[in-house]
Amino acid sequence: MSVHREILNVEELQGLDVDEPVVMLNLMKFREKSLDGHGSGWDAYQRYSRAVIDLLKANRGTILWAGPVVASALGNLPDGPWDYVSLVLYPRPSAFIDMMTSAEYEAPNVERENGTERHAIVALSTDYSKFLGVHDRQT
């Protein structure tokens, strides 16, 4: 079993509303050098991204936003700084789980592990989003 399956919180994700979209906040800290010796951590992450994009689309995932972290605007980050952040929309939690646990994900995931010193993914529900056309669920 690969490392990502050992730390993937499948039970927690399965407890989310199955009919609601979920946005995954990805926080990445890159290695200075890729573990396989082929360039930097960023280079390895780019290889991962190119290899996984079709799988992401097959699971109806959509990258809403991605970019480098330029500063910590408020507060301290207990794990230290992050290099890159992305927001990825999935139509439901099961689409994310299916992608992350598929046999097709195994090969590209090696590049992600080669490139990232730390990678955290936080599942988000939506109260408001211009991206998704959701406006205040509370009212």
Could you characterize the architecture of this molecule?
This protein is α+β, with helices and mostly antiparallel strands and 139 residues long. It has one domain: Alpha-Beta Plaits. It contains five helices and four strands. The chain has helices at 3-7, 10-14, 41-58, 93-100, 103-115, and strands spanning 22-30, 62-68, 84-90, 116-124. Strands 2-3-1-4 form a four-stranded antiparallel β-sheet.
* CA-atom Rg in angstroms: 16 Å
CATH A-level architecture: 2-Layer Sandwich
CA-CA gap between termini: 44 Å
What is the domain total for the residues? 1
Runs with pLDDT <50, length 5+?
Answer: none
Strand segment tally: 4
Mean of residue pLDDT? 87
Q: Could you state the oligomeric state of the chains shown?
A: single chain
3D shape: globular
Taken in chain order, the helices and strands follow as: HHEHEEHHE
Share in helix: 25-40%
Quote the CATH topology.
Answer: Alpha-Beta Plaits
Structural class, judged by helices and strands?
alpha+beta
Strand order in the sheet with the most strands: 2-3-1-4
CATH class: Alpha Beta
